[in-house]
User: Which sequence fits this backbone?
């Protein structure tokens, strides 16, 4: 069974653009289990259910969970310890002057820890910093140095250790799920299944806040016949 | 905190660029120190600039008194800093944010008020400085969904060259679903 864990950022993007049905179809595949941490449930359902502006989106997500397409991950022993380990690596991985930059929220660290403890095949996360820390810390370093217009130190030993610790965890974004849904012909019955719809869907995810660039989407569509 | 005097000066003299620059400097400091009070001050500076820029607010009869009250509060904040009274400083900062929200509720035209929009804007700045989405939202007390949607309409995600393409990831994802 391949476990795919979702962060709140990706669930928000997907539900906001009314693509939950596509995800439900993907979740129906036998060898895949879609999981969300309890904290993500609280953030995307429990809290916004009480706010008129966000209620509809929360209902869409809750429905998907109640219908069994997503499972709320049960508490896993070891997550707290693993979160502490990841936190120790991540939250002083970068320094501006002598100040340690606290880049990542505990909730995001807990999601990484859950992935590690469950042996998840993939984490679907639309926000950028957590993803770059796992996949491309050199890229993040370059970005931070450019942004701060001065030297930002990254602790290489911690990068190396983090990479080793989270080795094997694939990071995906909502755009990749949507692109795959298109390839699996799951657009049928939702929207017209053609390149124009795919293009529109990918840009919709970008505008919903998925950390993907115009250039990436253009390149991907250019590769598609 | 030198910035309070600068904020007061820029606000009283309607220097929009000054307030904007100050809010950017404050949020950067807030990110480096992960300081929620400094983030709140950045939000105050930004929202004061926004209020100052709205004709229907500055032309209102209530604006002169409200502006005077905010400037007086800033003097009190400066005194609190001199006296090293962090608690008093935070209390006055809250009072100023309440005053801004009050003015906006009375005179504003939108469901989402100036102060909440300022939170999202500063959170977006914090995200562009490398904080994760949740971390930026927490620092500024911005609503995360509003923040994510706002960021989606900026070019923040176009400034970094990704190592892996959408195609690479889709290929990997396909293997998970096989």
Assistant:
């Amino acid at each position: 069974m391949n476990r795919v864990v979702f962060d709140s950022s990706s669930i928000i993007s997907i539900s906001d653009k009314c693509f939950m049905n596509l995800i439900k179809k993907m979740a129906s595949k036998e060898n895949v289990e879609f999981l969300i941490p309890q904290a993500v449930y609280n953030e995307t359902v429990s809290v916004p259910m009480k706010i008129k502006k966000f209620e509809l989106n929360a209902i869409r997500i809750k429905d998907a969970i109640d219908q069994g397409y997503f499972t709320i991950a049960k508490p896993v022993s070891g997550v707290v310890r693993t979160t502490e380990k990841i936190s120790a690596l991540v939250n002083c991985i970068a320094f501006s002057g002598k100040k340690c930059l606290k880049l990542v929220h505990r909730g995001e660290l807990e999601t990484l820890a859950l992935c590690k403890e469950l042996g998840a095949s993939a984490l679907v996360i639309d926000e950028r910093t957590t993803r770059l820390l796992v996949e491309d810390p050199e890229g993040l370093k370059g970005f931070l140095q450019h942004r701060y217009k001065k030297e930002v130190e990254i602790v290489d030993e911690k990068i190396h250790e983090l990479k080793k610790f989270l080795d094997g965890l694939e990071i995906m974004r909502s755009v990749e799920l949507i692109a795959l849904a298109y390839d699996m012909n799951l657009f049928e019955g939702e929207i017209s299944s053609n390149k124009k719809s795919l293009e529109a869907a990918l840009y919709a995810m970008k505008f919903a806040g998925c950390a993907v660039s115009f250039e990436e989407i253009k390149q991907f569509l250019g590769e598609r016949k | 905190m030198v910035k309070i005097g600068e904020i007061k000066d820029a606000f009283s003299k309607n220097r929009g660029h000054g307030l904007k620059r100050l809010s950017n400097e404050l949020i950067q400091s807030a990110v480096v120190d992960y300081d929620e009070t400094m983030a709140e001050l950045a939000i105050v500076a930004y929202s004061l600039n926004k209020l100052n820029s709205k004709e229907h607010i500055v032309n209102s009869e209530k604006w002169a008194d409200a502006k005077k009250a905010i400037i007086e509060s800033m003097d009190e904040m400066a005194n609190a800093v001199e006296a090293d009274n962090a608690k008093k400083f935070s209390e006055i900062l809250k009072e100023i944010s309440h005053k801004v929200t009050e003015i906006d509720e009375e005179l504003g035209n939108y469901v989402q008020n100036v102060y909440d929009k300022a939170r999202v804007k500063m959170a977006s700045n914090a995200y562009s400085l490398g904080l994760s989405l949740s971390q930026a939202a927490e620092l500024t007390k911005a609503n995360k969904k509003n923040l994510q949607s706002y960021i989606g309409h900026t070019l923040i995600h176009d400034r970094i060259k990704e190592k892996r393409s959408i195609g690479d990831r889709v290929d990997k994802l396909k293997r998970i679903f096989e």
Remarks:
- Chain B has ten helices and no strands.
- The mean pLDDT of chain B is 91.
- The first helix of chain B runs from residue 2 to 12.
